[in-house]
């Protein structure tokens, strides 16, 4: 069993997707991954929200993360499955509170948001209204988030690499290959 830092470094150097750029930022990456995994293993569900430009990413994650039969399912759902009308409602403070109350009733074990997108998008308001989310933010640096640049010509590839490493980390944690210390 390896510690998560050593394991992640090894994976970033040798994975077939070649996410070597992420190794340079592993000390930003690893704390976020650790916290997300701890919350999942404590029984919380993950609600994936993206801005409109990254809806394709949400579809890919939701359809692929639990595709394998070789591990327990990850408790993840897209906000679009819970609120198909998410873009029709103005998300003022009262709307955010109503949605939060609804989610608190559904997810009695707790939940957290995984947000991927720009922080000024309407959908971001819901995710950013909660503390301790799993944030992949574009064009703005926020505390406890991983920042990407939307102008980067490889940003979509980087998203896929990050997702791949996240998924591999989930699997390694589930099968006791890594420790969270």
Describe the structure.
The chain is of the alpha/beta class and 181 residues long. The protein has 8 helices and 7 strands, in the order βαααβαβααβαββαβ. A 5-stranded parallel sheet has the order 3-2-4-5-6. Strands 1-7 form a two-stranded parallel sheet. The model has no long low-confidence stretch (mean pLDDT 92).
State the gist of this model.
With 181 residues, the chain is α/β, with parallel strands linked by helices. The protein is 48% helix and 17% strand.
Features:
181 residues; alpha/beta; 5-stranded parallel beta sheet; two-stranded parallel ribbon; 48% helix; globular
Give the SSE map.
Blueprint lengths: L1 E2 H11 L5 H4 L2 H16 L3 E6 L4 H10 L11 E3 H4 L10 H14 L4 E8 L3 H7 L5 E5 L6 E4 L6 H20 L3 E2 L2
Parallel strand pairs: 1-7, 2-3, 2-4, 4-5, 5-6
List SSEs in N-to-C order. EHHHEHEHHEHEEHE
Number of strands: 7
Q: Main beta sheet, described?
A: 5 strands, parallel
Distance between the termini: 11 Å
Query: Please, what is the oligomeric state?
Result: single chain
User: Largest sheet, order of strands side by side?
Assistant: 3-2-4-5-6
The percent of residues in helical segments reads 40-55%
Whole-number radius of gyration? 16 Å
Q: Give the amount of beta strand, in percent.
A: 15-25%
* CA-based shape: globular
Specify the structural class: alpha/beta
């Amino acid at each position: 069993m390896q510690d998560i830092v050593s394991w992640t470094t090894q994976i970033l150097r040798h994975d077939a997707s070649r996410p070597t750029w992420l190794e340079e930022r592993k000390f930003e990456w690893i704390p976020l991954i650790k916290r997300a995994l701890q919350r999942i293993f404590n029984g919380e569900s993950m609600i994936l929200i993206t801005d409109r430009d990254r809806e394709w990413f949400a579809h890919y994650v939701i359809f692929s993360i639990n595709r394998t039969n070789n591990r327990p399912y990850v408790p993840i759902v897209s906000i679009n499955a819970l609120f198909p009308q998410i873009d029709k409602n103005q998300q003022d403070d009262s709307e955010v509170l109503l949605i939060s109350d609804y989610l608190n009733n559904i997810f009695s074990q707790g939940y957290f948001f995984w947000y991927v997108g720009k922080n000024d998008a309407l959908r971001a308001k819901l995710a950013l209204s909660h503390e301790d989310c799993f944030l992949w933010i574009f064009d703005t640096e926020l505390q406890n988030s991983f920042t990407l640049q939307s102008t980067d010509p490889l940003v979509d590839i980087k998203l896929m690499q990050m997702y791949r490493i996240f998924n591999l980390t989930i699997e390694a944690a589930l099968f006791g290959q890594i420790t969270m210390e």
